[in-house]
Amino acid sequence: MNHVLLINSRDQKGLISKISTILYQNDLNIVEMKEHVDRASDTFYMRCEFTGDGNIEAIKDKIKKELPANAQLTLNPKKKKDVVILATKEHHCLSDILIRHYFSELDIEIKCVIANHTNLKELVNKFGIEFVHISHENKTKEAFEQEILDYTKKFNPDYLVLAKFMRILSSNFVKHYPNKIINIHHSFLPAFIGANPYRQAYERGIKIIGATSHFVTDELDQGPIISQKTIQVDHSFSAEDMKKAGRDTERLALAEALNHAIDDRIFVMGNKTVILT
Amino acid sequence: MNHVLLINSRDQKGLISKISTILYQNDLNIVEMKEHVDRASDTFYMRCEFTGDGNIEAIKDKIKKELPANAQLTLNPKKKKDVVILATKEHHCLSDILIRHYFSELDIEIKCVIANHTNLKELVNKFGIEFVHISHENKTKEAFEQEILDYTKKFNPDYLVLAKFMRILSSNFVKHYPNKIINIHHSFLPAFIGANPYRQAYERGIKIIGATSHFVTDELDQGPIISQKTIQVDHSFSAEDMKKAGRDTERLALAEALNHAIDDRIFVMGNKTVILT
Amino acid sequence: MNHVLLINSRDQKGLISKISTILYQNDLNIVEMKEHVDRASDTFYMRCEFTGDGNIEAIKDKIKKELPANAQLTLNPKKKKDVVILATKEHHCLSDILIRHYFSELDIEIKCVIANHTNLKELVNKFGIEFVHISHENKTKEAFEQEILDYTKKFNPDYLVLAKFMRILSSNFVKHYPNKIINIHHSFLPAFIGANPYRQAYERGIKIIGATSHFVTDELDQGPIISQKTIQVDHSFSAEDMKKAGRDTERLALAEALNHAIDDRIFVMGNKTVILT
Amino acid sequence: MNHVLLINSRDQKGLISKISTILYQNDLNIVEMKEHVDRASDTFYMRCEFTGDGNIEAIKDKIKKELPANAQLTLNPKKKKDVVILATKEHHCLSDILIRHYFSELDIEIKCVIANHTNLKELVNKFGIEFVHISHENKTKEAFEQEILDYTKKFNPDYLVLAKFMRILSSNFVKHYPNKIINIHHSFLPAFIGANPYRQAYERGIKIIGATSHFVTDELDQGPIISQKTIQVDHSFSAEDMKKAGRDTERLALAEALNHAIDDRIFVMGNKTVILT
After folding, report:
1. Which SUPFAM superfamilies would you find in this protein's record (chains A, B, C, D) (predicted)?
2. Could you say which DSSP state residue D169 is in?
3. Strand B72-77 vs strand B43-51: parallel, antiparallel, or unpaired?
């Protein structure tokens, strides 16, 4: 079984030596080891995937002892991630995930798809996934979000994936899933925050459009960016044409972000990400 | 000699028929003809390049009579454009233009390079181009700009190219050269307007950086966009690394914009461009 | 109802004038008109989409009279295209088409999916599309192909789409569908013709991989190219990693080619395509 | 002073631990450390850049002792590379290098530019670089190459850069500079090997063109690939248009390759490269 070791600590001379020596002495096989030192904050990041038997808890303790105070360390078996997907009406990102999942190209278990409209029910059910309709109508935002929280709670998901979920989540909601909600926004952030980014892009007359996948935080479209993709457009594109052309970009950006997440490759550093690939 | 016909008018049935028939009846050879109809504003754009002898003024009049009221029409010999370049300290966009010009890859005549610092003088002079130092120090912005205006006036340039000119031009300056000042901004606008866009990009933690070439208007970095380019970056890029990596993007975006401009391919439509390539 | 006029003829002065005048005189509304003149072969290509009532046959005759001898002209109502898809075992291109079709993003009617294996049956049936298993085993290539021909014949499809159909079609098969069989090859042709292009790419140590969608002709992977896409890879990619990474490239190249085809935008010029977008 | 440690050996458990521990015990500061294990050949690659005082020779010996037999190891001060450039008539790659060098963006010393034509002399001399004309006319290939070898020998260059040098070098020449001759070929290899790749690309009707920078080996255009870039083209591009459009691609691919080379980031593995960035 593969294990993934993630370390995030103040940088210090000898960290790689100490950590790799412990792994070596315990006869573990390193499959992949990646490090990054952020010079601005003097922070060391490491992702190490290894195979081998051994007392994992003991190894974890040994490594911990070698790290600076306040270091963050996780060491877990590599496992399939549990995911809840939120959607609204648009299908393309959801379809993409359902198909990749159906053919075992994404190492996730989709616990359910929750949507505030019903038009995607038929699609979701085709793939044997539970579709849950939670309408936002005739209730407060708080009530709407509470229903979602209540439903997702039982799955204890590793990630909530907003596959074109078009409602803005409150701080209260977000704090239940810190750095666990992955959104796809249909612009190259920070351009065109908020509603109708393709309309905004069209009005501005830009020559590239893009998509951004990011973790959701308190501030709208301001969370740590995981993946961005762009494509060229020109004056012949209406806002609607941009929207159509942008779909593939959105699917690819979200799929990339999701792959990094389920592979335990993303560290959040302030409002940025360090992605060890 | 090639001529370029540019038309910008309210759309109307039969425009292509009428215009192309006049050209045909005058035995002109169409080298390239491109049209675009903007549906939102119901506007017709045409660029037609042709060869052939004939009374150009008479042809122009005939076409004009067939167009809706308020149509804009120009019909001129295709000619080398006169350009004045403004720079500050960074060389890469300027170098790129100088080299392309030196090897006749840009159909322009560079009348002079004006800079508010002197470090690029040696480079410019290598290519036999006049370098003019106009400092912004110890004078008002008005006085600084007036010096530039006075110097450029005598050349009556077709375009002013801001090849990393790092001073913000006033409305007063801009109104002397409407849609004739081409700037390169080191971000994918509208993200990161204003100073230090790479620093802003770094702080935001984005995964793509870009460059935008646009016409300069009254509002900072808000003019009609001509060309945009992006490249991927990641967490390992410092703001300085982004700046270095962005240089090629800037050079390519500005070169593309300049090529469109000198080839008479750009129409300005409100705050957008229609580029008939 | 929209009509699409396609013309392919020797170039001649006045063609645009004559054609557009006939359309104008018949009070037709041009939605989009694109022309290209290939200088090397002196050939004129035009695609014109228009709306309006009128005697289409009469208009067609009038235009034909104005064209040079041997000109090719079609003028048909714009219509949904009938498509038969051929597949083998890989799902990604097929899934992509099924999903786009299901959500009405591709203006096609999928008559059936024929595959020489059965693993995709379940997927295809989910979308209410007929899945036909025609095995290539225990029979000659001729017999195998004849079965496919017999089955497709009744649908009289506009296009056969090879969505990762891994059998090489004989000249005899191809001649039944000239310029109507669209293939996706998993390399940037003409590099890596034939079997296992990702393996070939890996062995050669290339830094980009690609996909090519093209019309199928007699010669393996030599037909007119419609669309190509590439992405960057590096030394860390195994042949299998390239295969995975290439899937999105393949999907996008095939989807683009298919969109051009169903929109009647592709002319075949010798072994090349002219695509009027 | 920075040192660069390069290791290339059979893979073995504990290598990172052993190497990093030696560096740590000698109180060296690791600036950047990158490893790659090629699973197919079971080979370990490492590039480690560090600062610090110490007995470099002693450290090198200690590390060597820990490595498997036949391991290759170099440990040298990071230094400016000496480069001789070969050119023919085209300027764009040469210009690019001259300009980057002039503004200290490439950490190289250009010892001279050798060309078999004279049209680039004026450009080269502008930058204070020696231009050497060695004609290929009226002499055997052997004699021509011997002249170049004789001239370059005295500089003992780290790299020979073929900046659009259009003569094919013999095996005899190449063996003097194994993995030290960097070429730029104007196609995405392995497509369009040999002469006139843009003409070949045009004839084939491709929708992307590219450029490849690679080490030169005995076999024409078959050496280890360092960098590749592509751009989209369409049916409107003549072979000449492709050539023009391809220039920027060539410049960028060569500049990237050169940057990797002068930064000691490239390992040659059989006929491939491992580039530790």
Report:
1. ACT-like, Formyltransferase
2. P
3. unpaired
pLDDT digits (tens, 9 = 90+) for B12-54: 999 999 999 999 999 998 999 999 999 999 999 999 999 988 8
Nearest CA among D142, D224, D130, D135 for reference residue D182: D224
What letters, b where the CB count within 10 A reaches 16 and e where it falls short, cover C22-36? bbbebebebbbbbbb
Q: Determine the CATH number of domain D81-275.
A: 3.40.50.170
Touching subunits of B (3+ CB pairs, under 8 Å) are A, C, D
Chain B residues with beta carbon closer than 8 angstroms to that of A8? none
Contacts of B273 in chain A (CB under 8 A): 205, 235
Cα-flanking dihedrals φ and ψ of residue D64, to 5°?
Answer: -55, -40
Hey, are the CB atoms on B24 and C14 less than 8 Å from each other?
yes
Please give the structure tokens belonging to residue C206. Answer: 């290339």
Q: Of A261, A262, A184, A192, give the one whose Cα is nearest residue A216.
A: A184
Average confidence (pLDDT) over C10-14: 95
- Residue A53 banded pLDDT, cuts 50, 70, 90: confident
A83 touches chain D (CB under 8 A): no
Task: Name the segment(s) of chain A with CATH classification 3.30.70.260.
Answer: 3-77
Measured CA to CA, the distance from residue A139 to residue D138 in angstroms comes to 90
pLDDT at C54 over 90: no
Answer for the pair D192, D180: CB distance below 8 angstroms, yes or no. Answer: no
Q: Would you state the pLDDT for residue A70?
A: 94
Q: How far apart are CA B44 and CA B206, in angstroms?
A: 38
CATH architecture of D3-77: 2-Layer Sandwich (3.30)
Residue A54 burial by Cβ neighbours in a 10 Å radius (0-12, 13-18, 19+): middle
Active site (annotated) includes residue A221: yes
Which is nearest to C157 in space by CA: C253, C261, C235, C13?
A: C261
- Which of A13, A27, A33 has its CB closest to that of D16? A33
Within its chain, how far is the Cα of C14 from the centroid? 31
* Cβ atoms of C189 and D206 closer than 8 Å: yes
Chain B residues touching D99 at Cβ < 8 A:
91-92, 95-96, 99
CA distance C143 to chain A (A): 32
Chain segment A2-21, per-residue pLDDT in tens? 999 999 999 999 999 999 99
Q: Which of C134, C90, C131 is nearest to C111 (CA)?
A: C131
The backbone region for B164, taken as left when phi is positive above 0, alpha when psi lies in -120 to 50, beta otherwise, is left
pLDDT of residue C158: 98
Long-range contacts of C169-178 (CB under 8 A, 24+ apart): C169/C145, C169/C216, C170/C141, C170/C142, C170/C145, C171/C218, C172/C142, C172/C145, C173/C145, C173/C148, C173/C149, C174/C216, C174/C217, C174/C218, C176/C149, C177/C216
Comma-separated ranges of CATH 3.40.50.170 domains in chain B:
81-275
Q: What is the pLDDT of residue C85?
A: 98
The answer to whether the CB of B106 falls within 8 A of the CB of B259 is yes
Contact indicator for A260, A233 with CB cutoff of 8 Å: no
Confidence of residue B197 (pLDDT cuts 50, 70, 90): very high
Q: What is the pLDDT of residues C108-140, one digit of tens each?
A: 999 999 999 999 999 999 999 999 999 999 999
Give CA angle at B86 (B80, B90), nearest 5°: 120
The complex's ipTM works out to 0.96
* Own/partner long-range contacts of C248-252 (Cβ < 8 Å, ≥24 apart): C248/A252, C248/A255, C248/C92, C249/C209, C249/C210, C249/C211, C250/C92, C250/C93, C250/C164, C250/C184, C250/C186, C250/C211, C251/C92, C251/C93, C251/C96, C252/A248, C252/C211
